[in-house]
């Protein structure tokens, strides 16, 4: 496997190998002496994904090339393909790309010979976010199988929802959606629950950000929390052990009551921490051979 574009590329065993590799990196400070050059090409805003990739790359001892789209030659009309080809020509070993297009990788994946990691593709896929969500759930329950996971919010515009729903289903979870009518996506075949039903049955409540930047018209959010979000009253009806996830950034007071963001059952900042280990694992597996055991990947450190 040359690129990491989608969770669909991996077998279930390969997903679990990645989760175990990420776990092994959790308390590890040893650096890999790889002398690899990596460029993070972000064409949409990001705090968590870009910075956690940077931390992961530096912890692996990689050389991180400084790229800012606003000061790059893309402002002179250079295409994404020619930009990627340029990095390949000057000796980059790995590209991490986030772009607003749903399928930016289609043109690149056949023609770019260095590995590419998808750090977010429009409304379509966010596989590294999915992998860190899987790790967070796996740490909690030791399995994905038979868990009830409800993905709540702006399903229609969310790449996180799409990557997670498919991967969780494939790994044996029972997946449901909950959304305001305008945020439903009928092209995805998952049952919808009301938020009141969702909080009572879920093991994992995965909240999503309202993606205002992808809406054609301004979305009214007055009363959204009471009608569709996680209020303090609803949180009290959740099962004792069930957890709250959110990929962040969070619209506090909209999809979740601000006081719940750091509550006991919230794993929102744990997800961010896990993002570093998962990205270390994905980079290592991609550069050293996916499917090799995690011992092999770690031996190289
Ligand atoms: N969860 C996530 O992708 O966050 P950023 O947009 O800040 O990278």
UniProtKB/TrEMBL annotation:
Annotated ranges, domain Aspartate/ornithine carbamoyltransferase Asp/Orn-binding: 146-284
Residues that hold carbamoyl phosphate according to the record: 48-49, 98, 126, 129, 248-249
Pathway: Pyrimidine metabolism; UMP biosynthesis via de novo pathway; (S)-dihydroorotate from bicarbonate: step 2/3
Swiss-Prot/TrEMBL catalytic activity: carbamoyl phosphate + L-aspartate = N-carbamoyl-L-aspartate + phosphate + H(+)
Binding residue positions for L-aspartate: 76, 159, 209
Top EC class, one word: transferase
One term of GO molecular function: aspartate carbamoyltransferase activity
Protein name: Aspartate carbamoyltransferase
Keywords: Pyrimidine biosynthesis, Transferase
Location of the Aspartate/ornithine carbamoyltransferase carbamoyl-P binding domain: 2-139
A Pfam family annotated for this UniProt entry: OTCace
Assigned EC number: 2.1.3.2
């Amino acid at each position: 496997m040359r690129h990491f574009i989608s969770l669909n590329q991996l077998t279930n065993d390969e997903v679990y190998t990645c989760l175990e590799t990420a776990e092994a990196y959790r308390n590890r400070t040893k650096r890999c002496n790889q002398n690899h050059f990596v460029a993070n090409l972000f064409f949409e805003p990001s705090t968590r994904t870009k910075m956690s990739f940077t931390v992961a790359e530096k912890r692996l001892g990689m050389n991180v090339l400084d790229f800012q789209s606003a000061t790059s030659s893309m402002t002179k009309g250079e295409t994404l393909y020619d930009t990627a080809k340029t990095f390949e020509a000057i000796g980059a070993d790995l590209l991490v790309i986030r772009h607003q297009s749903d399928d930016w990788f289609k043109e690149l994946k056949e023609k770019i010979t260095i590995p590419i990691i998808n750090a977010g593709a429009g409304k379509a896929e966010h596989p590294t976010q999915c992998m860190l969500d899987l790790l967070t759930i796996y740490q909690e329950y030791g399995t994905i199988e038979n868990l009830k996971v409800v993905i709540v919010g702006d399903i229609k515009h969310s790449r996180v929802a799409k990557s997670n729903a498919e991967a969780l289903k494939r790994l044996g979870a029972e997946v449901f959606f909950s959304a305001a009518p305008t945020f439903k996506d009928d092209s995805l075949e998952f049952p919808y629950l009301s938020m009141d039903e969702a909080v009572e049955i879920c093991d994992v409540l995965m909240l999503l950000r309202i993606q205002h930047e992808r809406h054609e018209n301004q979305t009214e959010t007055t009363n959204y929390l009471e009608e569709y979000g996680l209020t303090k009253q609803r949180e009290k009806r959740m099962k004792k052990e069930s957890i709250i996830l959110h990929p962040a950034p969070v619209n506090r007071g909209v999809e979740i009551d601000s006081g719940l963001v750091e509550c006991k059952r919230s794993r929102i900042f744990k997800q961010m921490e896990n993002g570093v280990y998962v990205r270390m694992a994905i980079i290592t597996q991609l550069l050293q051979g996916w499917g090799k055991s995690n011992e092999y990947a770690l031996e190289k450190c």
